[in-house]
Amino acid sequence: MKPKPIYVEIEVQDDVEKVWKYTQQPKLHEQWDLRFSSITYNDKLPGENMQTFTYSTKVMPGIQISGWGESQGTHEKASGEKTSALHFGTEQLLSPIAEGKGYWKYIPHEKGTTFLTQYDYDVRYGVLGKWVDRLFRPVMGWGTALSFDVLKRWIEAGESPKTQYRRFFAFYAICFLFAFVWFYQGLVPKVLTQHPLEISMLTQLSPLTAAQGATAVIWIGVAEILFACCWLVPKLQKPLLKLQVIIFPFLTLSAIIAAPAVAIAPFNVITLNVTLWILSIIGLLLHEQLPTAKSCKRKRGKAA
């Protein structure tokens, strides 16, 4: 079955001309659109209506995908509604996209502008490419929606895309750091090794014997691994940050009570937990103004 085209729609509280400007001028477009690192218009020949351009996308340091595009014309209705049709593609084999077509539509209304896009593309590598596209297409849709929300915030609030993306990636870097810390602390010193210090601290704070403490440490480690996995669920990240702001002082205090010597060890529980506590607070502050793909409609007629 042929996959559905990617559809993204967002409401922008500003007039059509401003939305048109921020999406049609290459130097503005490349700032908010996560899918492109640079966009360059080619010179038009005399009497030519079609606008050609080249684009590039940095996949990772040292790896870049370049392609071509054609703006096949713009159409404006008496109501002020505008449409821009696009044809795009790339010859680079690293890209799963071979060639595609789509359009941008700008619909004015009393409160601003409905800005939407729909596009589809052909993949390379046959059946293998179609299987890869089952993962790639949702990522493209998500990236488009996130970019639209960054554009909306830029136009409405004046906050630059660079600042928004810096906040976005800093927030998720913190979340992935917490996932790693909890996973490692659960797996290595508890599940795999049952470190003597872990057992000692637990038995000091409870009536458990050493043997019982060793078993309990394993189960605590499993719980911490599950807790680490929760950090990968976007809906849970803000509640988890709030939880950590509350529990880290108590975890630090209980560790010192159970084993006072840990407070003077190199890279000890105090320095670790205080660092993670402060990062939790920073994460909460970053989350308050985080751009999100959820601001967009992803299907026609569906709520955002």
Automatic annotation (TrEMBL):
<feature type="transmembrane region" description="Helical">
    <location>
        <begin position="270"/>
        <end position="290"/>
    </location>
</feature>
<dbReference type="Pfam" id="PF13781">
    <property type="entry name" value="DoxX_3"/>
</dbReference>
<keyword id="KW-1133">Transmembrane helix</keyword>
<protein>
    <recommendedName>
        <fullName>DoxX-like family protein</fullName>
    </recommendedName>
</protein>
<keyword id="KW-0812">Transmembrane</keyword>
<feature type="transmembrane region" description="Helical">
    <location>
        <begin position="245"/>
        <end position="264"/>
    </location>
</feature>
<feature type="transmembrane region" description="Helical">
    <location>
        <begin position="208"/>
        <end position="233"/>
    </location>
</feature>
<dbReference type="InterPro" id="IPR025695">
    <property type="entry name" value="DoxX-like"/>
</dbReference>
<keyword id="KW-0472">Membrane</keyword>
<dbReference type="InterPro" id="IPR023393">
    <property type="entry name" value="START-like_dom_sf"/>
</dbReference>
<feature type="transmembrane region" description="Helical">
    <location>
        <begin position="169"/>
        <end position="188"/>
    </location>
</feature>
